[in-house]
Design goal:
The chain is mostly helical and 341 residues long. It has helices at residues 8-25, 31-38, 41-69, 72-83, 94-139, 145-154, 161-181, 197-214, 221-241, 259-271, 280-291, 295-305; strands at residues 329-330, 339-340. Strands 1-2 form a two-stranded antiparallel ribbon.
Length: 341
């Protein structure tokens, strides 16, 4: 159902399989190993969901047949025979034949729907990951907001940020619609253990918030439009999975990101020569006013899906130091090792 909340059955399957993966990966020290193990999680949810539907239909039709067959065992046998369309067990009663026909049709429809469901999921996953993969060169691995701004400035591409944020505005709208309709997509992971759709979205949001805070007269209008669409996307996903959030927080409500962490990002910008036209204290106040709209949702989602540990992305179930993107090196024939930019 488009835009619906996660139902009881899907929620139970999601949380039950999540506990299994937590037990299986709690001894894995490296985030890469946990990510590879977690890549099986989303397909497992789909398989368990299909078997759960079939099992519930099996029980439901058996309860309808029970008064006719006068035995739960024979009712289950006839229900299963009809549901998988094998037809090895059937009653002579006309009422039982009607139930058998409905059971056979239901079994075919459920399996057909699940098969038709997969291309839709893959299409949404592919659209999501294409732009996240393109983000690697701009924002590093794992993606980080200050690194994105610093590299774009280094490559002389600041004027192109408007079209970049416009692309990500559309990306956020697509993710909001597809992931709220198919919540299992939240669990699908990128092939690269250092890459994550959520960390990528956070990096682009932080870069737009930083740019609007550092140089409000220079930041393109697309940055503010993307920020609105970005935290609107996160709020829609939060409603779908039941994460509480403040829909209209005060700019001075405070955030969990510390000022020391923020200054570390400012230092990275200065290392790359990014022009900072405002006092850092003033930038910090304005940046908090933007980040308060999306930080709590990102932290909750990153914790829930065990996203790769990245700077400015909050804690994980297994405490792991966040990885910092590698600095760019200018490798030339005269300097093969390459000096850090």
């Amino acid at each position: 159902m488009p835009g619906s909340r996660v139902g009881f059955l899907l929620y139970g399957i999601d949380q039950g399989t999540d506990r299994l993966f937590r037990l299986a990966t709690r001894w894995m020290a490296r985030p890469e190993g946990r990510s590879r193990a977690r890549s099986v999680h989303a397909p497992l949810i789909l398989a368990v969901q299909l078997w759960s539907w079939l099992a519930l239909y099996l029980l439901g039709f058996a309860l309808m047949l029970w008064p006719i067959t006068h035995g739960l065992g024979s009712a289950l046998r006839e229900s299963g025979s009809s549901l998988v369309t094998l037809g090895f067990a059937a009653s002579r009663s006309g009422r039982a034949a009607i139930v058998d026909l409905f059971a056979a049709a239901t079994g075919l429809i459920v399996v057909a729907l699940q098969i038709a469901y997969l291309p839709t999921l893959y299409g949404a996953f592919n659209r999501r990951e294409a732009d996240v993969a393109l983000l690697t060169m701009r924002a590093g691995e794992p993606a980080w907001g200050p690194e994105l701004l610093a590299r774009v400035h280094l490559m002389g591409s600041l004027p192109e940020l408007g079209s970049f944020y416009e692309t990500w505005e559309r990306w956020a709208a697509d993710v909001a619609e597809s992931h709220s309709s198919y919540p299992v997509l939240l669990r699908f992971r990128a092939p690269n253990p250092q890459s994550s759709w959520l960390i990528g979205l956070l990096a682009v949001l932080d870069s737009a918030a930083l740019y609007a805070s550092i140089a409000p007269e220079q930041a393109p209008i697309q940055a503010r439009l993307f920020l609105r669409m970005g935290f609107g996307c996160l709020q829609q996903l939060a409603r779908t999975v039941g994460i509480p959030y403040d829909a209209d927080p005060r700019p001075d409500a405070g955030i969990k990101l510390t000022e020391a962490e923020f200054r570390h990002g400012i230092a990275r910008l200065r290392d790359y020569g990014f022009p900072i036209k405002r006092p850092v204290e003033e930038v910090w106040v304005h940046f908090q006013g933007w980040r308060v709209n999306y930080e709590s949702i990102v932290y909750s989602l990153a914790f829930a899906i065990d996203a790769p540990p990245a700077l400015w992305s909050g804690p994980r179930r297994i405490p792991t130091a966040p990885a910092e993107p590698r600095r760019l090196r200018d490798r030339t024939p005269e300097d093969p090792e390459g000096a850090q930019v």
